[in-house]
Write a structure and sequence with these properties.
The complex is a heterodimer of chains A (about 110) and B (about 375). Chain A is mainly alpha-helical and about 110 residues long. Chain A has five helices and no strands. By secondary structure, chain B is of the alpha+beta class. Chain B has helices at about 15-25, 45-55, 95-105, 130-140, 205-215, 270-275, 285-300, 310-320, 335-345, 375; strands at about 5-10, 30, 60, 60-65, 70-75, 80, 80-90, 115-120, 150-155, 165-170, 180-185, 190-200, 225-230, 240-250, 255-265, 325-330, 350-355, 360-365. In chain B, the strands form five sheets. Chain B has a four-stranded mixed beta sheet with strand order 1-2-5-4, with helices on one face. Chain B has a four-stranded mixed beta sheet with strand order 7-8-10-9. The longest helix of chain B has 18 residues, at about 285-300. Chain B is globular, with a radius of gyration of 21 Å. Among the domains of chain B are: about 1-75, Translation Initiation Factor IF3 (2-Layer Sandwich); about 190-270 and about 275-300, 2-Layer Sandwich (Dihydrodipicolinate Reductase, domain 2), CATH 3.30.360.20; about 305-375. Classes of the chains: A mainly alpha (about 110), B alpha+beta (about 375). Chains A and B meet through helix 2, helix 3, helix 4 and helix 5 of A and strand 1, helix 1, helix 7, helix 8 and helix 9 of B.
């Protein structure tokens, strides 16, 4: 049962947790243990490259220093003066069609 | 204390989150290769400042940094909290950078936290202090945080490069734990609020921003109020600047935000500044329009929080008791994805992530890790 559920949403789960993640249907992932198994006494003397095989499939190496910023601006060149654009989101406002908004809420249980 | 094995990580990414999760899960961490190949290697001033702040509000924590700042060892202690803590955030990142981890950390302290932070209140990189008041704090309340004692006072403003702003943050402690949520109804936008600010420039800048933003909202919603906050004298900090923070409130109690500020460049990458110095500042009218557009873009996404707050939302879900939390967001943000990965690594909580094709949103479900406020019980 767990397998079928996970196959359905493979894409996003894979995107977030990497390929191996789709196999592990359990909610607890082993990576925490894997990492803490290492003895930390000689962590300053690790040969270079050993820690490269960290369980971070989704990241490329270049990303390791990516800026620590939560703020995310959706890139949009949208012209909100455009009548059509406004009509598209009208039902997201109380001035729009309430029944449509209600249906939106229902489809997802 | 004997040997505690620590988690090994690389690079400067998500440093605040890593330190926060390390502290909450009592997992020591070792981070290597922090900007090892950069022209200026190692930790940045704001990162060191955040480490100092952690030392200030917790007991028994150990921070070791190597000579070049490319390696960091952190052994978390107990979060103590306390009143009348003061911290200078410097001017390399804004106060928002510090507030984000602090509001979660404070919840798991021994005593309620009340801290005065000095530095930059508004910039374009981090959520502004206005957005914290209007959007971030209500999200915490949703998870059962006591609204009394949760507040952020803006005493003076400051923008880059000089800073000079001051805020006081109060965070209550959790008596037990957070409350799991089922939060998938994003509702309909019933009102839009906002605040503009100006420091060391004419108040007319604010009126222009408001006028431009209103022009876009007016065709959608009559209930739009944007307040002004013009600061003068010592309350205006040390540098000129202006900005706007907008928030849309929905019928189901969701808050969607967008903010930005304009000022002269922040003095971090000295080499680049010479090229960028000639860059024109964005005029107030454009900022107003831009932020109104971004807010509409966020509303269009259909999540219960905006892109910026996804990380906080996931984190709070994961820290809940062992109940199911279910939330809806728009497109996953890169930072949100980073948070999900770190939550798995530190707390062992994995979300079930399902797209909802009809509304083009994403539903995430998880069982919290059952974190309790342990500091409170320690005598």
């Amino acid at each position: 049962v767990g397998r079928t559920a996970s196959r359905q949403n493979t894409n996003l789960m894979q995107l977030v947790y990497g390929k191996s993640a789709t196999m592990a249907t359990a909610s607890v992932h082993g990576s925490v243990d894997e990492e803490s198994d290492d003895d930390d006494d000689d962590e300053f003397f690790k040969p270079k490259g050993e820690e490269n095989k960290k369980s971070r499939e989704g990241f490329d190496v270049g990303d390791a220093d990516v800026e620590d910023c939560s703020k995310f601006t959706i890139p949009s060149g949208k012209n909100w003066k455009d009548e059509e654009m406004i009509e598209n989101i009208r039902d997201r406002f109380v001035t729009g069609d309430w029944s449509k908004a209600a249906r939106r809420g229902q489809v997802s249980e | 204390m004997g040997k505690i094995s620590s988690m090994k990580l690389k690079g400067s990414q998500n440093l605040r989150l890593r330190l926060l999760l390390s502290t909450l899960s009592s997992t020591p961490i070792l981070i290597e290769d922090i900007r090892a190949d950069a022209t200026w290697p190692g930790l940045r001033p704001h990162e060191v400042s955040f480490l100092r702040l952690l030392e200030k509000i917790s007991d028994d924590c150990v921070v070791e940094i190597n000579e070049t700042g490319t390696k960091l060892k952190y052994k978390p202690g107990n979060v103590m909290g306390g009143k009348h803590v003061v911290h200078d955030c410097g001017v390399s990142r804004s106060i928002g950078y510090f507030l984000e981890p602090l509001i979660v950390l404070g919840l798991f302290g021994k005593k309620p936290l009340s801290i005065r932070l000095r530095g930059i209140t508004n910039d374009s990189k981090d959520p502004s202090v206005d957005t914290f008041r209007s959007t971030t704090l209500p999200i915490l309340k949703r998870f059962g945080v006591n609204p009394e004692g949760l507040e952020l006072k803006i005493e003076s403003r400051g923008v880059a490069p000089g800073g000079g702003g001051e805020v006081v943050l109060s965070v209550p402690i959790l008596q037990d734990s957070l409350r799991a949520v089922t939060w998938i109804d994003e509702g309909m936008v019933k009102r839009i609020r906002g605040v503009t600010f100006s420091t060391r420039v004419s108040v007319q800048f604010e009126n222009t921003m408001i006028h431009a933003a209103r022009g876009i909202f007016n065709r959608l919603l009559p209930d739009v109020h944007i307040f002004t906050d013009h600061k003068a004298g010592p309350l205006a900090g040390k540098s000129p600047g202006y900005g706007i923070s907008l928030v849309a409130e929905t019928t189901s109690g969701c808050f969607i935000s967008a903010d930005n500020a304009v000022c002269y460049a922040q003095g971090e990458e000295e080499a680049e500044i010479e090229d960028e110095e000639k860059k024109d500042l964005i005029p107030p009218e454009d900022i107003g329009k831009q932020m109104a557009g971004i807010l509409l873009g966020e509303i269009e996404q259909g999540g219960v929080v905006d892109s910026t707050h996804q990380g906080l939302l996931f984190l709070l879900c994961a820290l809940c008791p062992q109940d199911v939390s279910k939330v809806r967001v728009g497109k996953l943000s890169p930072y949100g994805i980073g948070v999900l990965r770190h939550i798995r690594d530190f707390l062992g909580v994995k979300f079930v992530i399902k797209p909802d094709p009809l509304t083009e949103t994403v539903i995430l479900k998880c069982v919290g890790c059952g974190l309790k406020n342990l500091s409170r019980k320690v005598s």
